[in-house]
Amino acid sequence: MTDPVSVLHSTFGFPAFRGVQESVVSRVLAGERTLAVMPTGAGKSLCYQLPAVMLEGTCVVVSPLIALMHDQLRAAEAVGIRAATLTSVDENRAETRGRFLDGELDLLYVAPERASGSDFRDLLERGKLSLFAIDEAHCVSEWGHDFRPDYRLLRPLLDRFPDVPRLALTATADTHTRADILDQLGIPKDGLIVAGFDRPNIRYAISAKDNTTRQIADLIAEQPGPGIVYAQTRAATEKLAEALAKTGRPTRAYHAGLEPPIRAKNQADFVASEDMVIVATVAFGMGIDKPDVRFVAHAGLPKSIEAYYQETGRAGRDGDPAVAHLFWGAEDFAKARQRMNEVETARQPGERARLSALGALVETAGCRRKLLLAHFGDDAPDNCGNCDNCLNPPAATDATTVAQKFLSA
Ligand code: ADP
Ligand code: MG
């Protein structure tokens, strides 16, 4: 077998592994079941693509979104990896099946609902497999922030091929969710590999809402580069974009209700711009690679700490200073509580834990970064020197308990 580093150079053109990639890749090459928890942008794809190139047979990649699969396909083909997607929108499915059976695919991307069908299982039994890669693996857990029942149907497929190694990957899973993923996908506890979560160049700040539009306009005035403002509804997105346009900065709205060509144009304009502000719902950001985003603002409470980490993580990917500012109000907690009461009973404890963790984050008088990292099981010093509370310690009397009141009621 050639060595992984030479494949890293020759196929991917990278000088070295980053962070935990090397440990993940060596476990996979040794055939060991693994769960890799690595922040967005850490290079999870390489952890299965490189073994897929080195090992004989095809790596089946389970991925939840067709659009992401097609992006991945293009990226893989660009470096000469033999890859295909098998989804409802692909017209070349028969050809893809043939390529798989002839041993001509390194990677085969599928959605979980297809992967769990008997046709697919029969197909796999007639070919040769190198690896199962389960991307966005937090979707398998009800404790995760994005549970998808289809992911639960994967286990019987995996167990049909007990000798094929499995690699689960996720950017965001708290300690509870990690344990559940291991359990659900049949990965041993010592198969967990976690990369560091700290993003030292991001300055975290959290404020109670006062006049959100003005507060965000002030933030924009202080931050010259491109920025993302997350709003909670489509209507709020458009209204806020219109109001913020008065700051004189180019401003666009982005949400799933816009006509596809407009949405695509707004996104492309933002990616190309050096000073644009995009006001978006959380639909924006997945799969967007813009390294120079200088600030991310939240006009309201995110869904969970995982979502907050992922959304703020879109700032400062180039390593230069960036700001993440969240504006929240008591009504956000009231609404979230109401939604919590509407979900199935089985999911309520997870929802409650999520909300309570957010309450602790917004109301702490201590270091935001420490609290955030502790959520992902990372140790951190008591004072990061780069969050609002460390830079301007609040007076003890400033501490409010609005969120806690809504949570305990
Ligand atoms: P993730 O899925 O963890 O968010 P990706 O797999 O999309 O991250 O990778 C993010 C970026 O990092 C990609 O542009 C990828 O080409 C790049 N990358 C991955 N591994 C390396 C490496 N070892 N050296 C340099 N760049 C890398
Ligand atoms: Mg990825």
TrEMBL record:
Chain ranges of the Helicase ATP-binding domain: 25-191
Biological processes per GO annotation: DNA recombination; DNA repair; DNA replication; SOS response
Protein name per Swiss-Prot or TrEMBL: DNA helicase RecQ
Enzyme Commission number(s): 5.6.2.4
Keyword DNA damage: yes
Group of enzyme by EC: isomerase
Superkingdom as given in the UniProt entry: Bacteria
Alphabetized UniProt keyword annotations: ATP-binding, DNA damage, DNA recombination, DNA repair, DNA-binding, Helicase, Hydrolase, Isomerase, Metal-binding, Nucleotide-binding, Zinc
Gene Ontology annotations for the cellular component aspect, listed alphabetically: bacterial nucleoid; cytoplasm; replisome
GO MF annotation: an example: four-way junction helicase activity
Name of the gene encoding the protein in the UniProt record: recQ
Entry similarity comment: Belongs to the helicase family. RecQ subfamily.
Enzymatic reactions: Couples ATP hydrolysis with the unwinding of duplex DNA by translocating in the 3'-5' direction
Domain Helicase C-terminal, chain residue ranges per copy: 215-359
Cofactor(s), names only, from the UniProt record: Mg(2+); Zn(2+)
